[in-house]
Design brief:
Arc Repressor Mutant, subunit A
């Protein structure tokens, strides 16, 4: 249910409660039967309970949204701190990867394709980013694998990333 729907329902229930209260006041002055007053009073109480339920739901949603915003901001901050702390190392790694690509005698286009593949891009994405066809991206990736003596993308990734991960994972 959207906030707009909640507000419409809340307003409707408030109006119903107000009309029932006015009717009860009028009925009391006119000496209407007690069973009639009890039924109208029960309807008014149910409308008030509905208002309370919707209001509580709105407050809970507001708290959840606030919590999610804080979580999102914390995650953004954590990502920024990670980038800041790791920038020096990543710049060095990028430089070393580029040196290896030069040793493999890759063309500038093949180097660009290699970096995009290492970032996890699909051949379709590589082609779109570079403004080429998917067939061209595939041919360039195959040239990279051939010049590097690797069988495919997983070996390419492993060549550069295997030593970055610990041999044995430790529990914190």
């Amino acid at each position: 249910m959207s906030n707009k729907d909640r507000l419409i329902l809340l307003t409707t229930l408030l109006l119903i409660t107000l009309l029932i209260a006015i009717d009860l006041a009028t009925d009391l002055n006119e000496g209407v039967a007690i069973w009639h007053l009890v039924i109208e009073g029960a309807a008014g109480v149910m409308a008030l309970l509905g208002i309370g339920y919707i209001f509580r739901d709105m407050v809970n949603l507001k708290h959840q949204l606030h919590h999610q915003r804080l979580l999102t901001e914390n995650l953004r901050q954590e990502a920024t701190e990670w980038r800041t702390r790791s920038k020096e190392y990543l710049d060095g790694l990028s430089h070393l990867i580029n040196e290896q690509l030069c040793r493999w005698q890759l063309s500038p286009a093949e180097k660009e394709v290699t970096f995009l593949l290492l970032k996890g891009m699909s051949l379709k994405d590589v082609a779109a980013i570079r403004g080429t066809s998917e067939k061209t991206a595939r041919a360039q990736s195959m040239a990279v694998y051939a010049k590097a003596g690797l069988s495919g993308r997983s070996e390419l990734s492993a060549f550069f990333l295997e030593d970055l991960l610990p041999q044995k994972f430790e529990n914190d």
